[in-house]
Amino acid sequence: MTSSHPHPPRCHWFSALAGALDPRSAKRLACLFLGVILARGRRTLSSWIRAAGLAHQFRRCYTTVAAAGRRTELVATNLLREVLKPLLADAPRVVLAIDDTPTPRYGPHVQGAGVHHNPTPGPAGSPFVYGHVWVVLGVLAAHPLWGTIALPLLARLYVRRTDLDAIDTAHRPAFATKLELAVALMRWARLWLGFWGKPLWVVADGAYAKAPFLGAMREFGVTVVSRLRKDAALASVPEAPAAKRRGRPRVYGPERIALAERAGHRRGWTIETFALYGRPVQKRYKTFVATWRPAGARSGWYWCASGRVGWRSSARTRRRARPTSWVELRS
User: Fold this and answer.
1) What string of DSSP letters covers 212-239?
2) What's residue 321's pLDDT?
3) What are the CA-CA distances from residue 246 to residues 105, 238, 250, 252 (Å)?
4) Residue 147 region, left (φ>0) first, then alpha (ψ -120 to 50), else beta?
């Protein structure tokens, strides 16, 4: 007698992503994706092959991964079209995130590796790490249990100019800064996400709140949410003249905004509760319209966050205070 229990539906995500390769290699790549999830220990290709049960054809697996590395943009496009588009169908906007992530490597003969700043020193407290740095583009989504999570889409390897000479000329890439890599990633995302007909936002830290990146985002029509520099100079928006005058129109208004002075008092601040690492935290922020020279925009909405409620400082400390400020730039 046959069982009447229905079979669970098969996940087709791996097959959709592997469709970027030749059909003879697509099936093997889908099995390797499963091995990535089931692998234990170090996250290496050898562990993926063992977990997927493909040890008898490990040479073909290396060839398949090399072919997938040459078609990363097509794999990421399939990820957008087949996986993420149905999940974000009801979202009012598409929110992306850009950040650079170091990955430690070991050995003196790792191609493209170098000494980089370590953002997470850990218990050892080492300020530098030897390895690779990837500029990663991800999609921000809301999870019912974990809150906001980032789903990586595409990444670009950043190699310092001083480390390029160690790479063979036949495989040496052209030098590009992190800002240029971020602009290239956003150009690719705008190309495919523009067909969705939704506003495109990007979230980045203060390292990307610079003119090369912000100017390109203004041309793309992308809203940028980033942290301002601690010594950022803001100015009010100029008033529209009653009649047309000779000369170039004004870019800045007469009032200059000092972030440190705004963080030192409580007048005009709005209190809201935000989820920070799964815990509710009260933050104060103020909304105002100003201009900022690196953004290259005439006006924009700026949120200045001063920290937790109840934060105080003396007059001497307040002069040195440099609050964490977030800016939203609208083109």
Assistant:
1) HHHHHHHHHT-EEEEEPPTT--EEEPPP
2) 41
3) 61, 16, 11, 17
4) left
For residues 282-316, b (16+ Cβ closer than 10 Å) or e, as one string?
ebbbbeeebbbebbbbebbebbbbbeeeeeeeeee
What does the angle CA 221 – CA 223 – CA 225 come to, to the nearest 5 degrees? 155
Q: Is the dihedral of CA 195, 210, 275, 148 positive or negative?
A: positive
Determine the length of the chain. Answer: 331
Supply the DSSP symbol for 293.
G
Pairing of strands 200-203, 223-227: parallel
pLDDT of 310 > 60? The answer is no
What percent of the chain stands above pLDDT 70?
A: 81
At residue 242 the predicted structure's pLDDT band, cuts being 50, 70 and 90, is confident
- Give the pLDDT score at 262: 58
Helical (H) or strand (E) element with 78: helix 72-78
Provide the 10 A C-beta neighbour count for residue 89: 9
User: What is the C-alpha separation between 234 and 290, in angstroms, rounded?
Assistant: 6
- pTM summary value: 0.81
- Would you state the pLDDT for residue 135? 96
Q: How is residue 192 written in tokens? A: 């495919």
According to DSSP, the β-strands at 279-292 and 297-308 are: antiparallel
According to DSSP, residue 166 is labeled G
- Once rounded to an integer, what is the mean pLDDT over residues 186-201? 90
CA dist list (Å): 156 to 100, 128, 200: 9, 20, 21
Report which DSSP code applies to 154: E
